[in-house]
Design a protein that fits this description.
By secondary structure, the protein is mainly α. The protein folds into two domains: about 190 residues, MFS general substrate transporter like domains (Growth Hormone, Chain: A); about 70 residues. About 90% of the residues lie in helices and about 0% in strands. The protein contains nine helices and no strands. Helix 4 runs antiparallel to helix 5, helix 4 runs parallel beside helix 6 and helix 5 crosses helix 7. The longest helix has about 55 residues.
Length: about 270
């Protein structure tokens, strides 16, 4: 029997967090992709025109444009788990606000809150998958994520229609909010970055730091050489150093300091 690879030995360390991300994504997508059968009932209840109901659904694109980049920045600063969990909670809040709305304005407010949480969560799902799965399985895991996203639509639409027949569209929207909370609990408990992802992130951070400090040292070495030649020619000509030479000496000192810091950082 051959020796197992590190990925095989540590399969549990990434598989459980991966499944947690899948549950969070399913809870997120079931409401987003499965609420479309409820739109006629929502339109009748709010007495909304087709223009209004079109804006009600199309506001998704506006929120996506405005929040996609900030969502990534928030994930970088606070971590994908915190932002995704917060996003799922905001989604549930928006769904519950929509389920209690009695006019179009309040319903649109709930929809916008829901979509803000959705955009924060969706971006962080991609980040969480990247940090969870091994490098050799990146393509497969992304394919699984895409197929299960389609499954959320297949399951979510009939689920919403069935609940609407019994409890009305408000009950169906509230049920989607409850499923989102279930996904939030599962994700919060079981998700964590795998040890391989943490090691990879640490190595990338070290490389960035080394390049950041090495660049000033490289530039300063060339600048010091040029300034030294210029200063030597000034001394050989027998004239006093002017303002330009004084600025060159000052820049040489600054470069020597930053170059020394860069070299010492690389040594560590």
């Amino acid at each position: 029997m051959g020796q197992r690879s590190p990925d095989q030995r540590n399969v549990r360390s990434w598989l459980i967090p991966f499944i947690a991300v899948i549950f969070g994504m399913l809870a997120l997508q079931m409401a987003s992709l499965g609420f479309s059968p409820l739109l006629p009932a929502i339109q009748r209840d709010f007495q909304a025109s087709y223009t209004k109901i079109g804006f009600f659904t199309g506001v998704y694109g506006l929120v996506a444009i405005l929040l996609s980049v900030p969502a990534g920045l928030l994930a970088r600063k606070y971590g994908e788990k915190a932002v995704l969990s917060t996003g799922l909670l905001i989604v549930a809040m928006g769904l519950f606000v929509l389920s209690r709305a009695h006019d179009f304005t309040l319903g649109l407010t709930g929809r916008v809150i829901w979509l803000i949480g959705y955009r924060l969560s969706f971006v962080c799902v991609m980040i969480a998958i990247a940090f969870t799965a091994p490098l050799r399985l990146k393509g497969s895991t992304m394919g699984i994520l895409g197929s299960l996203s389609s499954l959320a639509s297949v399951v979510g639409a009939p689920f919403g229609s069935r609940v609407e027949q019994v409890f009305g569209w408000r009950g169906a929207i509230a049920a989607f909010g409850g499923l989102t909370l279930v996904g939030l609990v599962i994700f919060s408990i079981f998700y964590r970055r795998s040890s391989s992802a943490l090691d990879r992130e640490r190595r990338e951070r070290d490389v960035v730091c080394q390049r950041t400090w090495a660049l000033p040292a490289h530039r300063c070495a060339g600048h010091g050489l040029a300034s030294g030649i210029q200063g030597t020619s000034g001394v050989g000509s027998g004239r006093d150093a002017g303002p330009a030479e004084h600025r060159g000496i000052h820049n040489d000192l600054l470069c020597a300091r930053s170059g020394g810091i860069g070299l010492s950082s690389q040594g560590h």
